[in-house]
Amino acid sequence: MGIRPRAAALAAALILASLPATAAAAPGKDGARMVLVPGGAFRMGTSGADIKRLLRTCPSCRGGRFGTETPHRLVQLHAFYIDKYPVTVRLFRRFAEETGWRTLAEKEGWGWVLSGGKWVGARGATWRRPAGAGPFASADHPVVQVAWADADAYCRWAGKRLPTEAEWEKSARGAGGRLFPWGDSWEPARLLHRGNSKETTHPVRRSYLTHDSPYGVSDLSGHVWEWVADWFAPDIYNRAPALNPAGAFHGTRRVKRGGAWNIATPLVFRGAYRDYHPPELRNNISGFRCAVEAALFSPF
Cα(38)–Cα(18) distance, rounded to whole angstroms? Predict the structure, then answer.
C-alpha cells in the first residue's frame, strides 16, 4: 500500500527538520551549493534586549532607527535550502546564455555605480562590466548590476526562488537570534565593509574577511546587498502571519538585506536590518542568492 501524499509530506518534513543544519546539497539546476535550514521557530526582528546588546558592542549605534524591525516576534518556518554563497558571475552567465535573458541594465544601457563615495549613472554598466568602463566582472565574484526581476528570473530558471525576509533572517541569526551571523560582538575582520573592501567585490569563496552563520551560510553580512522576495512595508511585522510570512502583497519597493562593501556602521550589518529600494534599481553593490522549500527535495 503506497504512502498517502499528505502523510508523505509530513514524514518528509519531520525528517528534514531533524537533519543537521550543516547538511549541504545542490538541488537547483544551477548546481550551486545550498545549506539546509531546519524547520522550526525563531525570533524575528529587534527587541529592547537586542538594542542593549548592540550598544554594548557598538556605542556609536545609539540613535539607530529600529521601528521597521518591530515588534520582535516568534516566527515559524518550514525547512528550506538557501544558497551557501551569493550567486556568482559564472552562474549568472550560464543562465543568460541558456535563456537569452537581458537584464534591465542591458536593456536600458546603464546602471548606478558607486565610485569614490559618489553615485553616478554609468553608461554600459551591466553585470558583465559592473562599472561600465574598466574590467569585466570576475567569474567567482558575486553578480551585481541586477534588478529585482533579474534576480527573480535567475532563481526561477534554477528551479528555486528568492528567499523571503524571514528565511534570510533565520539563515543569518539562527534560532538563538544572534545580532550578527557570527555572534553578538562587532568583529570588523569577519566581513567586507568600507574599511577593508578596497571598494570592490571579492571571490565568494575566500579565506579572509568572511564568516558563516549558525547554519553554515557564508557572506550574509557585508560584501553585497541581497534582494529578497518581499515587498517592503514598514508595519508588516504587526500584521504578518506567524507561519511562513512572505511580506506584503504589493508595494513599490523590494527588500534588501545584509549590507555591502561601501558601508561602515555595524548597525546595517545586523541580521535584523531591513533596507528597501525600487525593484528597478541596479548597482555595483547589490546581488542575491536563492532558496527553495526543502520538502520539494524530500526522499519520498
Answer: 7
For the sheet with 275-277, list strands across it.
275-277, 254-257, 225-231, 286-288
pLDDT digits (tens, 9 = 90+) for 222-274: 999 999 999 999 999 999 999 999 989 999 999 999 999 999 999 999 999 99
Long-range contact pairs involving 115-118 (C-beta distance under 8 Å, separation at least 24): 115/199, 116/199
Query: Of 211, 238, 232, which Cα lies nearest the Cα of 223?
Result: 211
User: Under CATH, which architecture does the 5-297 domain have?
Assistant: Alpha-Beta Complex (3.90)
Residue spans of the domains in the chain: they are 5-297
The string of pLDDT tens digits covering residues 176-230 is 999 999 999 999 999 999 999 999 999 999 999 999 999 999 999 999 999 999 9
Its pTM stands at: 0.91
* Residue 15: strand, helix, or coil: helix
Q: What is the CA radius of gyration of the chain?
A: 19
Strands of the chain, DSSP E: 24-25, 34-37, 40-44, 73-77, 80-83, 110-115, 118-123, 225-231, 254-257, 275-277, 286-288, 291-293
Q: How far is CA 219 from CA 8, 195, 266, in A?
A: 35, 16, 15
Local structure of 193: helix, strand or coil: coil
Q: 289 pairs with which residues across the strands?
A: none
Cell of 266: 555595524
How confident is the prediction for the chain on average, in pLDDT?
Answer: 92
